[in-house]
Amino acid sequence: SEDCPWLYTLVLALRRGAQAVDVEACRVGMRSVRVEGGQLKVNGRAIEIRGVNRHEHDARLGKYASRDTMLTDIRLMKQLNFNAVRLSHYPNRNLWYDLCDAYGLWVCDEANNETHGL
User: Fold this and answer.
1) 3-class DSSP state for residue 90?
2) Run of H or E residues at 23
3) pTM for this structure?
4) What is the maximum alpha-carbon separation in the chain?
5) Is 14 exposed, middle or buried (0-12, 13-18, 19+ CB in 10 A)?
């Protein structure tokens, strides 16, 4: 489900003959997303988006958000029954996206472009 995603570890290796030149790994998941009759459906099931805006900001550290700060934000969102987060005005650290995947939060990311109509 979206609240408890099933993620796999994908490992890619670039080889020159038998020698690995580079190896990268990332977490991936698979799903079907479509809009039917004005309803957003994931894996054939209708979902409701309950979201919040977030700036990557820490009260003490300014524009740097530590892992602990990110986890505090995510836990608070989940406790308040949010399932989505809109990242305001700029991309966040890669760690944020990984944590959202692990904790089952939908992400609406902006590429320095306003999306207030979503």
Assistant:
1) coil
2) strand 19-28
3) 0.75
4) 52
5) exposed
